[in-house]
Specification:
The chain is mainly beta. It has a single domain, classed as Jelly Rolls, CATH 2.60.120. The protein is about 0% helix and about 55% strand. The protein is built from no helices and 8 strands. The protein has strands at about 20-25, 30-35, 40-45, 50-55, 60-75, 75-80, 85-90, 95-110. Strands 1, 2, 3, 4, 5, 6, 7 and 8 form an 8-stranded antiparallel β-sheet that branches. Strand 5 (about 60-75) and strand 6 form a beta hairpin. The two termini are about 20 Å apart.
Length: about 120
């Protein structure tokens, strides 16, 4: 793969300082930490006011609030979550995040997000 992600696929040990952030714009950046065909773990750093726009996907997602404070929307419900909190998103449910104070989310996806590494999924 030309994007450098192929050598990360299936790697058993990953040092954070060996990976680069991808600037997503709008005060967000992403770092894919590890993945295989079935599972992916991604860090997403937010500046205060950063928005993870409302969207949905066929993946199951769980996210851990590593730091900061976020207003999380899942379907019709909104909750403010802080460091140590977790949320679960079933497939195809509209969801998004508003960062209330600088922070980081750790997202886990099943199956892996092929769109994050330019891989087609069936």
């Amino acid at each position: 793969m030309s994007n450098g992600m192929e050598d990360l696929k299936g790697r058993e040990f990953v040092a954070d300082d060996t990976l680069s952030w991808e600037d997503l714009g709008g005060g967000l950046k992403r770092k894919i930490m590890a993945y295989d065909d079935n599972l992916m773990l991604v860090k997403v750093a937010f500046e205060k006011g950063g928005i993870g726009a409302l969207h949905s996907h066929f993946h199951t997602q769980m996210s851990y609030v590593e730091s900061g404070e976020f207003e999380i929307t899942i379907g019709e419900e909104k909750k403010v979550l802080r460091k140590g909190d977790v949320y679960y998103i079933p497939p195809h449910i509209v969801h998004g995040a508003l960062c209330l104070s600088d922070g980081m989310l750790v997202d886990v996806f099943n199956p892996m997000r092929g769109d994050f590494v330019n891989v087609q999924q069936s």
